[in-house]
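Re: duplicated header lines in exported structure tokens

Our pipeline writes sequence and tokens for each protein into one text file. With two proteins the header for the second block appears twice in some exports. Here is an export where it did not happen, for reference. First protein block:
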Amino acid sequence: MKRGFLLLEVVLALAVFGIAATGFAVALHRMGAAAELAQRELRITRILESALDEAISEPTLTVGVTNTTVAETGIEIDTQIQALENLENEKGELLQEMYLVRVTAHWFENGIAQERSVETWRYGRMYQPS
């Protein structure tokens, strides 16, 4: 009789351990997926920030759209520079030579087209020597 209880206790202990191990494995998998997603988001954010910094640091801005591809990533970067007309400050004074600089990244992830963009304004003579 005592051996029957010992076998039942071992089976129950293995079942409890199996359930706990499965939960732990699922949690590790989800943590890994979340870390991978965070890493992809950080990578695309760094690429966008770098492209925006490069675009706004040019001495002269040329209105239009340029397209480049980031090597080995398959990410296409569109840089759009647009002149802002009739832009006024809070005193109602017209701001001249202001540009909107927008950088948009396009890529495919899991067969689905993805897109993210960043933008800023820049004064046209900001990086010109005085």
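Second protein block, exported in the same file:
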Amino acid sequence: MSQSDPSTPPPAPFDAFAPGYSGGLEDPIKGLLAGDPLAYLRVKVDLFLDDLDRSQPAVWRQPDRRYLDFGCGTGDFMHLLSTRGTRWAMFGCDASGAMLDEARKRWPQTCSAHNLWQITRPDQIPGHHFDVATAICVLHHIPPAEWETYLTALFHGLRPGGRLYVFEHNPINPVTQIMVSRAPIDRDAVLLWPFSTVRLLRRVGFQVKKLFFFLYIPPRFSKLLKFERWLSRIPLGGQYMIVAEKT
């Protein structure tokens, strides 16, 4: 029996979910609340770009910005950003090689124009390289003992003044708890309590600028989403966003 190539990463736990991955919309309840496969991500794109535009629009809309999608999966978020007029150099990394292959098949134009790589260790994130990064529902798939290690790597990966946007499921919300318990891909997930995530980010050196709760209203009812801003400080939304800055 031949030995495997030690330079080739072993199969990642999420490789089996990669073909046709739909972000859990195979669950009929989640699919009904979404309306379409990218609906939940569109909400996050709106929050992400809106926050950047509200802070320093002249800076963040410059074409020389470098953006990292940490745990990019099938590249859906990067693709949506590319359709919104962003001219950044975009980078995506993921532990699953199969997810990256699916991204290249799904969004060939986006992926060929930007950079994807498989990550199996935090030291594979280059230091002082990025202006802005996102971690979109990724941390709950990482073992809790490694949360601080990966957040430290993201801190060092950002240039001074760079921002990290963390999106996570909110375990305070009972519907979120039910949906996560029903999702096969979340079988080993450990949800992060929002205020614990804030403390983690501060511990590794970030200044936390904002904690924002959202998804009180399902994306299917998109015309009502504008009213969520009135509720954003109440910790009952289905998900939350944290804006953290490397000062």
